[in-house]
Amino acid sequence: MNGTGETQNTQRVVTDWGSDAQSGFRKKVVVGQHDLHQRPEFSDEALAALIERHPRDLTDFCTMGDLDEGADSWRAGDPGDLSGMEMLEAVRAGKLWINLREAMCVDPVYRPLFDQMMADMKRLNPGYRALNAESGILISSPTAQVFIHSDVSETILWHVRGKKRIRIYPATAPFLTDERMEAILHLEQTEDLPFEPSWDDECEAVDLEPGMFTSWPLHGPHRVQNLSGMNVSVTMEIVTPESMLKNGVLHANGVLRRRFGMDPKSTEAAGPGAYMKLVFSKMAKKLWRHTKPMPKSETTFDIDADSPTGFRDRAA
User: Fold this and answer.
1) What is the pLDDT, as a whole number, of residue 294?
2) Could you read off the pLDDT of 227-250 as tens digits, one per residue?
3) Residue 62: beta bridge partners?
4) Is the Cβ–Cβ distance between 76 and 61 less than 8 Å?
5) Pairing relation of β-strands 154-168 and 145-149?
6) DSSP 8-state symbol, 192
7) Which of 31-56 are b and which e, b meaning 16 or more Cβ less than 10 Å from the residue's Cβ?
8) What is the mean pLDDT of residues 73-99?
9) What is the 8-class DSSP label of residue 42?
C-alpha cells in the first residue's frame, strides 16, 4: 500500500526524533518517541472492534514454544466465534500472538494515523523516500516472542502497550549470510533464521515501553521477547530505492547462481553494475515465478479465554 501524504485532520505522531536518530536512521539502531499510546484507537475497545471487523484472511492467530524450540514451534489457531474483547482477554492471560496484517493501511479508522506516521518520517528525514509501505498491528501475550528472522524490507517498530525487548544482530555472517538472504529473496524459505544463544553477546538490545519506536539497518536479523503486559505494536515494512536496489543485486546473484551455474561475488549496491543487476532481477522474476513459502498454516488449536495458555489444542 502506498501512503506517504500528510493528513490534515491527524496531529503529528512523532514527538521526539533527535539529531542522533536522524543521522543514524537506516544506518544503525535508533530510537524515537511517539504518542500512539495516548490515542483512543489503541484502547481495548477500539482494538476489540478492529479484531472483529478486520478481514480474517489478513489475520493470523498463533502461539509459539520456547526459545530453544525455535520457529518450528510456531502454530496457527482458530478464534471461532469469540468476540474481540474475549480474544483480548485470552491474549492477556495466555501465550498468543495476533497479527492484523495491513490494518494500518486498509482500515479507515487507522489509515489516517498511518499516513501521518509516514509524513512525519519524511518530514524529519530529508531525502527519505518510500516507494511502498505496509503496516500492521501486533497484539501479543506477556510471554509471547518472535524468533530470529530477517525482513526483506526496511522496518520500523512502533511500540504502544506493554513492555518488550528487541534484540538486533548485525546483517553479516554468522548471523546472516548472502546465501541465506538469496534463498529468502528466491522464496525458497521463510524469513526465519538459525539461532545460537551466544549471538546475544553481539546483539544490540532495546527495551521498548509505550511511546517508543525503533528502526535498524536493512536485513538486520532480530528477535522479540515480551517482558510484561499485553503488548501492542505497529509494524512498518517499507520499500525504498536503496532496499529495492540491494535486494535486486542479491536476487540477481541468486538467478546467476541457480540458473546459469555462475558464482557472482559482488553484492555492491551502487554503480552501473548494481543497476544492471536490478534490471536483470526484474526480468528474471517475470520469467521464473515462484510461490512464497508460508509459515505453518494448519490450524492446531482453538482460542480459549478460560485456558491458562489462552488456547486448547485440537485432537491430532
Assistant:
1) 65
2) 999 999 999 999 999 999 999 999
3) 76, 97
4) yes
5) unpaired
6) B
7) bbebebbebebbeeeebbbbbeebee
8) 96
9) G
